[in-house]
Amino acid sequence: MREVGIAAKNRSLGEFSAVRTKYTTELSEDPVVSRHLNSFYDTLFGQNLLKLIEPYSRVQIGHIAKLIQLPLETVEKKLSQMILDNEHNGILDQGSGVLVLREPQCEGKDYPLALAAVQSLNGIVDMLFQKTTKLK
């Protein structure tokens, strides 16, 4: 279990897979441990992908699959799942086999103030419209 913890700390799917291979009998005999390790594998897979794509704004999916040493289809499926789950902000361009990462959109401090100002202006415009219809 200590080696599983080290693999988790390093966010390394390769280390985790090596530990599971090394201790196959001990880790797969207990159904509870096996189920948790399968769930943990999925989580670690996502974290490892995030670690690998972190420095890029545009990267080929084949390159990521080669780095993580998994089939292209598996990596592509996980990336699309992560996009749908909002774990990262990106687009899969399947035509060119590229993952395009977008900057995370954050609301600044000015956004709520600007929204309130626009809502106030909307109320004023509605009021002026009502007054002009009365003048006609």
Automatic annotation (TrEMBL):
SUPFAM superfamilies: Winged helix' DNA-binding domain (SSF46785). It comes from the Eukaryota. PROSITE patterns: PCI (PS50250). Residues 1-106 form the PCI domain. This is PCI domain-containing protein. It comes from Paragonimus skrjabini miyazakii. The lineage of its organism: Eukaryota, Metazoa, Spiralia, Lophotrochozoa, Platyhelminthes.
